[in-house]
Amino acid sequence: MSLGPVMMDLVGTEIGAEEKALLQHPQTGGVILFTRNFESIEQISDLVAQIHALRTPHLLVAIDHEGGRVQRFHEGFTRLPPAAVYQNIFKQSEDKGRECTEIAGWIMAAELRAIGVDFSFAPVLDLAHGVSGVIGDRAFHSKPEVVSTLAYAFMRGMLSAGMHAVGKHFPGHGGVVEDSHHALPVDNRSFDIILRQDLVPFERMIRNHLSAIMPAHVIYDQVDDKPAGYSSFWLQTVLRERLNFHGVIFSDDLTMEAACIAGGYPERAEQALAAGCDMVLVCNHPDGAAEVLDHLNDYSNPASQMRLMRMHGKEGVSREELLASYRWKQATEMIKLLDENPWYEMDI
Length: 348
Prior knowledge:
alpha/beta; 12 strands; 40% helix
C-alpha cells in the first residue's frame, strides 16, 4: 500500500476504533500529533509505534515542534527557545550563531526521532516584518540573508539527527497582520518585492536541498486571487518551475479559517491537490477528514507518492542512548542557558 495524500490527527492518547479505520484508508498518508496526544514518554512512543505498525510503508508521523510558542511536547523534552533568540548570538558572532542554531535543530530532531516521530514542520522561513503576531518571534530575523543562514543551520542539525526539514510558510506569512487560523490575510505587496525579500530564504534553502515546503493560507492579491496553498501560480510556476523545487509540498491545515474560501472540506482538498500540494492536512475535524478521504477515493498521483516516501525518518539512536550521550548533555545545557536568558552573552 502506498502513502495517500491526506494527513489527519487523533483525538486523544490512544487510537480509537473509528480512527483506526481512517488510518487504514488507502488515501491516508500521515498523522500529525498535538499536545493532547501526549501523556508520557512511554505512552507517546507506544502510540507512534502503533501508528507505524498499521501500514507498510508506515504512515508518516509529524508534529509542529519549532520551539518557543510552538512546541507540542514538553515533559521529557528539552524546552527550545523561539527562533528569534538565535539572532542575539548571531549579532555577537556569526559562527557562534550558526553553531547554536544547528545544535537546537539537532536536539529538536534527535529527541523526536528517539520516540519515532518522522519529522517536524520546521523551520519557519518567514521574515520578521514586525506586523504579524502569529509569526512574531517564530521568525529568525527580518533580513532574508540572516533567515537563510540560520534556517540552513537549523536544517543541518535536523538532518544530522535523521529528520527532514519542512520550510514554511511559502512565499512568506510575515507581511500580514491577520492570523490565517482565524481570518483570511491579504498581502498587498507586489511580486517583485516578495521576490526580493520573502522568497529569498526559500530559494536559498531549496538550493541547499530542502526536503519539503508548506505554503501559506495568504492571498497575495497583486499576484493571484487565491491563497498560495490553492494557487497553481505559486506552487507550480514559482515553486516548481522558477525555484526548481523537487521536494514535498504539504498544505497548511485545511480547517483553518483562511482555507474556507475553497468551500467544504472535500473541495478544499481537491483544490489544494490540483494546485500542486502532495499532501493535505485536515486537523481537529474527524468528520471533515472522513469526508476528504471518501471524496479522494480514486485519487492517484505516483509522483507525489514517491516524494512522500522520502519523508520517513532515518534510523537513529534510542532515547536511552540519546540521553546518555555527551553530545546531548552538552547541547541541552547550552540551550537551557539560552532559553532562560535570551540576551545572555555567550562565551565567544
